[in-house]
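Researcher: We're reviewing a set of sequences before deciding which ones to prioritize for further study. For each one, I'd like a predicted 3D structure that I can look through quickly. This is Phosphotransferase. If possible, include the structure in token form so it fits the rest of the review sheet.
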Amino acid sequence: MPGWRRRRGPDSFWAGGIARRSRCTRSDGLDDEATGILCQSIAALHAVTGTKEPPDALVPLTRWFRGLIEPAPGAAREPGIERAAAVARELLAGDAHAVVLHGDIHHANVLDFDGRWRAIDPKGLIGHRAFDYANIFCNPDTATAIANFPRRLAIVSEHSGIDRQGLRAWLTAWCALSASWTEESGGTPWTAQAILAEFG
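Model: Here's the predicted structure for Phosphotransferase, in token form for your review sheet.
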């Protein structure tokens, strides 16, 4: 941890970084700035290319979503989760343009290192690039996520070049997966449920 502090890590990040920007009012324009930084960070990661094939250790999204799209026989799930699972199956079936994904981009995983934003804690996935943008909409807290959703959708679509319908579909799939994980661990997926109810 001392090393992080020397390089403007989590302490300074939470004091004045992306999370604080997002909690400010939309009229301040700071959530727009935070969303743009996250989008630019994702685009920079996706732009990295190499001469070799991606490592076999990367987890394909079909495996990452397996618990959602292949539920245990007889498992009882809410209708909203079932509908989202159907969306996920359709997205993954048509996922022909795979890129290496970070897998967990959000407001606490992009840090300011001496004026340069860097993503940490990658999950090592491979799949459609839209997946990396989905978690932006769920953070840093439920109230902020819901209040800023329409504006964020416009900004992310503009930065990524992905149409809004496509982004919403991937967000629906991600929220359902996140909700299922949270419930399995004994928690209540407030943000994921709220987004699915409002915008899914």
